[in-house]
Amino acid sequence: MRLRNQTIVITGASSGLGRDLAFSAAEEGANVVLIARREEELKNLKTKLEEMYPVKCHYFVVDVTDENLIYDAFHQIEEQFDGIDVLINNAGYGLFQTVEQMSLQDMKQMFEVNVFGVMCCSKLALSSMKLKGKGHIINIASLAGKVATSKAAAYAGSKHAVLGFSNALRQEVEKDGIFITNVNPGPMDTPFFDIADESGTYAKSVRKMMLDPEKVASKVISLIGQDIHDVDLPSWMGFGAKIYSLFPKISHRVMMKFGNKK
Predict the structure, then answer these.
(1) Which residues are tagged catalytic?
(2) Is Oxidoreductase among this UniProt entry's keywords (predicted)?
């Protein structure tokens, strides 16, 4: 029960990695606040968490692109849970289309969720963490933010923006005892691909290397309280990102083949 009585806010909590993060956090004794758009899934998850673990759980039906709803939710969280100890910005989605194919509206919407949602939630959590003199914001980015592939330009751009935001924010709040961690997963076996890859072609081609979301969730929760800046999952893909920066031309050819599987 390492996280007993700590309050952890998780966005995108209704399914996939967000759901597994909630279970892993509750298993460690944390009180969990769930944020997502689908009330039925949130309600069922709250019931299961409270049945399985002696923790408090609350949920808010919120779209992270709605600034007013996010503000109201975070205000209530601070009142009901005596502040926020950890924020995990997990909400996000992708679409695998070329720049020419994708509409500008889809591009804007992806940035609204993947980038501005992270910025808004992080900004609102900071005041509570500063009052406590400690805190941890964990942003679920992506290895796509380090190594982009074709048909994922907008998605990679949004995750690259998250990395840049996190790295700058870390410098601003270090003096306040607040940690900022980027977690960069590769392909993961979640409903992400139901939207990103409707044909199922890409998901099928990378099925053998897909990460288990339960294991990723456990890893993420284990990072809480540690001043770790960046975690790549799996580690060998993270090594590939470093190779990409050192040998861009060779890596470009390799990533062309990988991206064309989409």
Answers:
(1) 155
(2) yes
